[in-house]
Amino acid sequence: MVRTADPTSQMSNNGSGSNREQMNVVIVGHVDHGKSTVIGRLLADTGSLPEGKLKQVQQQCESNARPFEYAFLLDALKDEQAQGITIDTARCFFKTKKRDYIIHDAPGHIEFLKNMITGAARAEAALLVIDAQEGIQENSKRHGYMVSMLGVKHLAVLVNKMDLVDFSRERFESIRDEYSEFLERLGVHPLGFIPLSAREGVNLTGRSEETAWYDGLSVLEQVDAFTKPEGNAEHDFRMPVQDVYKFTADQDDRRIVAGTIDSGSIDEGDEVVFYPSGKESAITRVEGFNTSPRTEISAPYAAGFTLTTQIYIRPGELMCRKGQSLPHVGRRFRANMFWMGRPPMVREKNYKLKIGAANVSAQLADVISVLDASELSSVQGKQQIDRHDVAECVLETLHPVAFDTRNNIEPTGRFVIVDDYEIAGAGIILEPLTEEDSLFKEEIKRREFSWERGLVTSAERSTKAGHRGKFVAFVGKFHSGKRNLAKAVEKHLFGVGCQVYYFGLTNLTKSFESLDREARTRSIEQDDAVRRLGELARVMTDAGTLFMTVLTNVDDYDMEQLGMLNAPNELFVVAVGETPFSQFKADVELPDHPDLEEAVQKVVEGLTKKEVLIDYSI
Ligand code: GTP
Ligand code: MG
């Protein structure tokens, strides 16, 4: 029987009301090695076809004087789908006594890989088909690699078309040995190799005489022997924050933090922490969507939470549970990546990296090795990643992201790379790396090293001006009065003879504006803007200027980064009202809409104390 219910839905059952177990299996392999035949035959031999379908297709073949192919069954089912009834182009359903199967034929493996990595499709087990006569081909290897990369836990290899090699044991064993060795190098341990003739039905649903020397499982037995990987609900809690909704009623400043739980579970009252900001709170209420009222909720449900304290967090953060293992927060990691983009992935170019709900600007920092699937070997020393390459590489983001390693928590251990609005790469994170030798630090070092100076020293400049060059940032929310204050400070200091300049962020490019807007989501424009602002401040302060600007949309990491970019001149920060920081301490803290005259005094005092203003007198 072929079902009409959406089989990927977690809550669907087999239509008969019983809650039978479901398993997603993907079938992969080189072109023409027999994937569709295996599926067609499984459908036919397990009685999963609609009444009379097999006969109908056989008769059609006969009347067209065309040899019958099991693969035609799939096409016939597709035709039915065109009439709106049964099947999907890439999925078939069959059932055994043990459970229901959804089998994905992945003809366009790139599409499939994209879906798997973005989480749109799932495969818990894989069947990899190799033609006994043709032997191991390029895609046999590439697909083996993908299965390993995607972390599909169970794999069985079907050595098909054994009828074409007289069911030769030697042929089977030589393919088995060669392919096992390849998989071994990838760290993949197949559960079995099955000598098969899909067309003749040898070892498909039961053991066959033709291969008397084989005492392993048939394909169907093997599929039933796959075990369900444990669900993500068992792991530590992770929920990428997709959105933060504000209650609209007057006087109600509660917010709902919403997303889809990637792993683990959480209860009312549990303490939570958001990364990368590190902000903490606790759950007041669990708001499920389309679920009954509950106090506890787990993966894979979408959920919303109200928190006990009003913390300022933005979509893109990763919500975790205090007391459990925490994600890594950083800018560098080692990853395995599959590149699908037409232009190769190159260094020194900015890409968009999406992980969880976060979008950050990222660069290729290093290519460790590239797997040449056709040669079955790793290529070292490659400087770029070409289309269809599988590479082990180091990626570096401009702003820190929260992530897990794939082996630890799978959904938060995978990412995609977007180039020019298209998904161009997809991968899994193997290991976090320190930022010791980051591209960022290297670049700052290089910049400082090659800085060409005039004949006037910084010391001479500050002696003459009576102050040092400094980047003074006024940070606060929209309408906090920080802008008026910054301009008043500029005017005042100018009046007493300082070399001072107020830089309106909207002056130059749109990307700067992103730092001066109360944005809901962090954008990659923002990463770039921080970078450019830091560089600009470095030049202005080197010229001895008190360089001032206002920042609305920044966090601790941005301040750290601005500081590094502006080194050795450092940063002087004036916070007005509530700040977006979690740990970062401002040099001067002022209330919302401060009294202007007093506030200017406070800033001046702060600058004097820090010895920015050297011989200041009012
Ligand atoms: P693509 O979807 O094009 O990649 O091919 P596929 O892997 O789905 O192969 P398919 O099942 O369409 O089979 C390709 C050809 O191999 C067909 O002509 C099948 O009849 C033939 N074939 C499949 N299994 C066997 C087998 O066990 N023995 C023999 N002799 N031929 C087979
Ligand atoms: Mg096919």
Q: Please state the structural category.
A: alpha/beta
The strands making up the biggest β-sheet line up spatially as 2-3-1-4-5-6
Q: Please write the CATH class name of the largest domain.
A: Alpha Beta
Q: What is the gyration radius calculated from CA atoms?
A: 31 Å
Distinct small-molecule ligands in the complex = guanosine-5'-triphosphate, magnesium ion
Question: Overview of this structure, please?
Answer:
This protein is of the alpha/beta class. It has four domains: 219 residues, 3-Layer(aba) Sandwich (Rossmann fold), CATH 3.40.50; 89 residues, Translation factors (Elongation Factor Tu (Ef-tu), domain 3), CATH 2.40.30.10; 101 residues, Translation factors (Elongation Factor Tu (Ef-tu), domain 3, Beta Barrel), CATH 2.40.30; 159 residues, P-loop containing nucleotide triphosphate hydrolases (Rossmann fold, 3-Layer(aba) Sandwich), CATH 3.40.50.300. Helix content is 26%, strand content 28%. The longest helix is centred in the C-terminal third of the chain and has 19 residues. The N terminus is likely disordered. Magnesium ion binds next to helix 1.
